[in-house]
């Protein structure tokens, strides 16, 4: 049986489209065959967090940010995290958005010490963190205070 050229091109095109869609979703961080579960967190400010950003526990990536949704009032932002590793996360754990110059933005989960664990598709507590600029200003503020104090003392010495 002879297969026509049109059939060959059509089947090759269909296979290419399927591979393109699967590859695109793979690059976005979505898994197809592995065991994973979702974890939800509610934030008021996501500090540049985007889908496919890593979810980290103790320096090890255990998942990715799957989606970010909000309501019409923009009061609350729901972050859906896809956890790909089989980890037990205690109920009193906290999800913190961590901004880094080198690594970008990630969700860092600080583990608690509770004996019960968050169920699959459960919610985790969140904590608001200061941005990088706020951290820098907290460190620079005492130095600026000392400089202004020194300048005023030099000024008083020069005037006398």
Which key phrases capture this entry?
single chain, 160 residues, alpha/beta, 2 helices
Topology:
Blueprint (H helix, E strand, L loop, with lengths): L4 H23 L9 E7 L10 E4 L2 E11 L6 E7 L10 E7 L3 E7 L11 E6 L4 H28 L1
Structure summary:
By secondary structure, this protein is α/β, with parallel strands linked by helices. It has two helices and seven strands; from the N terminus they run H-E-E-E-E-E-E-E-H. The radius of gyration is 25 Å and the shape is elongated.
Strand order of the largest sheet: 1-4-3-2-6-5-7
Helix count from the secondary structure assignment: 2
Rg value: 25 Å
Largest sheet: 7 strands, mixed, barrel
Distance between the termini: 108 Å
Strand pairing plus helix content: what structural class? alpha/beta
Give the overall pLDDT as a whole number: 86
Instruction: Assign an overall shape.
Output: elongated
**Strand content of the residues, in percent?**
25-35%
Q: Which residue ranges are poorly predicted, with pLDDT under 50 across at least 5 consecutive positions?
A: none
N-to-C SSE series?
Answer: HEEEEEEEH
Using DSSP, what is the number of strands? 7
Helicity, as a percent range: 25-40%
Explain the overall architecture.
The model has no long low-confidence stretch (mean pLDDT 86). The protein has helices spanning 5-27, 132-159, and strands spanning 37-43, 54-57, 60-70, 77-83, 94-100, 104-110, 122-127. By secondary structure, it is an alpha/beta fold. Strands 1-4-3-2-6-5-7 form a seven-stranded mixed β-barrel. The N and C termini lie far apart (108 Å). It contains two helices and seven strands. The longest helix has 28 residues, at 132-159. 32% of the residues lie in helices and 31% in strands.
């Amino acid at each position: 049986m002879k297969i026509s050229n049109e059939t060959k091109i059509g089947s090759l095109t269909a296979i290419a489209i399927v591979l393109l869609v699967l590859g695109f979703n793979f690059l976005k961080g979505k898994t197809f065959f592995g065991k994973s579960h979702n974890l939800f967190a509610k934030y008021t400010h996501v500090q540049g967090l985007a889908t496919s950003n890593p979810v980290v526990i103790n320096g090890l990536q255990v998942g990715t940010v799957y989606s970010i949704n909000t309501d019409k009032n923009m009061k609350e932002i729901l972050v859906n995290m896809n956890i790909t590793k089989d980890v037990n996360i205690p109920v009193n754990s906290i999800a913190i958005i961590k901004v880094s110059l080198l690594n970008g933005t990630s969700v860092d989960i600080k583990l608690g010490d509770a004996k019960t664990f968050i169920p699959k598709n459960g919610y985790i507590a969140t904590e608001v963190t200061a941005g990088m600029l706020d951290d820098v200003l907290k460190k620079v503020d005492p130095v600026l205070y000392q400089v202004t104090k020194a300048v005023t003392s030099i000024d008083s010495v020069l005037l006398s």
